[in-house]
Amino acid sequence: MKMHPSKPASKQRILIADDHPLFREGLVQLINRERDLSCCGETGTVAATQTAVATLQPDLLVLDLRLKDGDGLELIKSLKARFPDLFVLVLSEHDETLYAERALRAGAKGYLMKEEATDEVLNAIRRILEGELYLSRKMSVLALHKLLDNAEDARGGYVGRLTDRELQVFQMLGAGMGTADIATELRVSFKTIESHRENIKHKLGLRNAVDLLCHAVQWVHGRSGSDPRNGAQPAAH
To answer: How far is CA 187 from CA 41, 133, 184, in A?
Structure first.
């Protein structure tokens, strides 16, 4: 955890949690140039972020979903349980059409992708500090269509059926990690990951481990939104 010198009380204090030091440095400089904002600290791990929130008591946390030692969605849930008044803005490379709604359900107040302009980052921070929710224009339109149509929107297609943890396991499988490696990374048992794999296969209508691996790899590298059950044989029971 890196703490920054205290700023005038009139400035609202921002904590940055991201595992890329260069990105953090750029964000610190961006925030500290503003008359009404200041960066009170920066972290790169889940553990350090939990400590920093408790110690520094920031007004808002800017959080990447991927940190070195854990999952951002689970961190949001944990922090909101301990600090219900904490504002959280997710700033991530993860596709907003799949992760934005999950982040808001976890307790975040906004979601923004890192490819957005710096002015939009500042706009999102200020709107959340004013008590508003923030979504990009694209996500706002998708949310409106979902509300009006009462149907699934385009947010990640078939993988939207998975829970947050199942999606995380699916993504790790697609990135080439084995069951044992995933269990170690997530600090759970081998049996737990096997259970997640079975649940994923059932929800996605996949027949076996080979199908699961193929679709996971395709999704990670191609971000396919097509349903594997379309044109596929029913899952074996």
So the answer is: 27, 33, 5
Q: Which residues contact 173 (CB under 8 A, 6 or more apart)?
A: 182, 197, 212, 213, 216, 217
pLDDT tens-digit profile of 29-74? 999 999 999 999 999 999 999 999 999 999 999 999 988 888 899 9
pLDDT in tens, 79-106: 999 999 999 999 998 888 888 888 998 9
Eight-class DSSP state of 228 = T
Residue/partner pairs of 170-179 with CB below 8 Å, 24 or more apart: 170/200, 170/216, 170/219, 171/216, 171/219, 171/220, 173/197, 173/212, 173/213, 173/216, 173/217, 174/213, 174/216, 174/217, 174/218, 174/219, 174/220, 174/221, 175/220, 176/217
Neighbours of 210 (CB within 10 A): 9
| Distance of alpha carbon 180 from alpha carbon 192, whole angstroms | 10
Per-residue pLDDT tens digits for 130-179: 999 998 877 766 666 555 554 444 444 567 788 889 998 998 898 888 89
